[in-house]
Amino acid sequence: MRRPDNFMLVILRSGGKMDRFTNIKCMLILLCVSGLSLIFQNNLVASDEVPGKKQKHPIALVGGTIHPVSGETIENGTLLFVDGKITAIGASIVFPDSTEKIDVAGKHLYPGLIAANTRLGLVEVAAVRSTRDYAEVGEIKPNVRAESAINPDSELLPVTRANGITLAHTIPMGGLISGTSAVIELDGWTWEDLTLRGPIGLYVNWPNMGSNPGAAGSKKEKELLKKRDADILKIRTAFAQARAYLKAKDAEAGEKVPYHQTDIRWEAMAPVLNKEIPVLLRVSGLKEIQAAVDWAVSEDVYAVLMTGPDVRFATELLKEKNIPVIYMGTLTLPSRRWEPYDTPFTVPLELHRAGVKFCISGPGSPFDAAHERNLPYQAAMAAAFGLPKEEALKSLTLYPAQILGIADRVGSLEIGKDATLIVTDGDPLEIRTQVEREFIRGRKVQLSNRHTRLNEKYKTKYARMK
């Protein structure tokens, strides 16, 4: 019988002979990695926070400063909501029977903040494969829907909402056409409870249009350009096939027209081709922006760009084509040695001056899901470098709601909209400000989370050491 270590030797070696000592070392490494993986998985438990109860009686927040975002600030105002909807805002309001009055004198009321580019709910620990559910196999997968993969027990949701972020635009990734995104509320028992609206948009990773300048004319550059052309052709072909499929399905109602087998990939693209939802174009540099915009115009689809600082070179084009931007990551470094240090900080101001519709988000990588709580400071940095403070606040509330097609429900404090709001002791863009109360569709949301529990734990530890 072959010994187990010989079996491991066959698996591990990549060429040539291994001695017994090397074989044992490889086995130990495998065992250590497996053990660490088990440790991580055993510690990945559901969050302790209990989702809020459905609102059962009217609630009035009395005496606070109300910042509707879409209108003038109301001093010493009252906001009333019933059955999860805002029913009255003003200085003097007649309260229905059984209204719960909450004194918020000296506090500030804002719409809940919106994280417009995240993988929240699709990843827990980016380094642990078993907690990553943001990418499916394949390059063309428009039928993938982010909301059905959401983990409602993620520890990252309570951590994020504790800093005033009540909604997150969660997006799948991987391949060329990754699937459709969804906006989720950061409180609920199931993914159905969490989903505010989905699908929101079809996520497309636009290929890089050039290669490294150092590789110009080389064999590597030719291979990269060949791959680029092939990837663009795949995207164009997918849209052409989806159009042909939908045309054929529409024709089935006619006489003597054969039945076409249902294809869930092309069915999923119907809302995009009918201009019900946008294509979310993930692009990097100026060449990619120009190519992606040209493609979107040629396909006659509604597009939203998800991009970084190079968007400042394309403001005229975006203004002309009326294409909004999700600006990813104010808190980043310049990408070129000759660029000023504050280049990423000033791009929102340039977009504002050019009249381009935009909102501010974080980088949106799986690693950054654990840091979405810092979203307010992305906008704060833009405000510190010239963006009007009111615009900075709108870039996290009203503007992402408009770009994502959910402004009928959230993004501002208005009668008829969801009672999704926060009560703070100051400006939410200030790092010292604390969120004291939070409501999502009228539900009182717990603000405790793993961070606050650890804070109390170690405060106790050091108190005992005195």
In the CATH hierarchy, what is the class of the domain at 44-112 and 411-449?
Mainly Beta
CATH H-level homologous superfamily name of the domain at 44-112 and 411-449: Urease, subunit C, domain 1
Main beta sheet: 8 strands, mixed
Specify the overall morphology: globular
The CATH topology label of the domain at 44-112 and 411-449 is: Urease, subunit C, domain 1
Q: Give the CATH architecture of the domain at 44-112 and 411-449.
A: Roll
| Number of separate strands | 18
Uncertain segments: 1-18
Q: Helical element count? A: 14
What Rg, in angstroms, do the CA atoms define? 25 Å
Describe this structure in words.
The protein has 466 residues and is an alpha/beta fold. The protein has a domain of 108 residues: Urease, subunit C, domain 1. It is built from 14 helices and 18 strands. The strands form 3 sheets. Strands 1, 2, 3, 4, 5, 16, 17 and 18 form an 8-stranded mixed β-sheet that branches. Strands 8-11-12-13-14-15 form a 6-stranded mixed β-sheet. The protein has a 4-stranded mixed β-sheet with strand order 6-7-9-10. β1 and β2 form a beta hairpin. α1 crosses α2 and α10 packs across α11. The longest helix is centred in the middle third of the chain and has 33 residues. The N terminus is likely disordered.
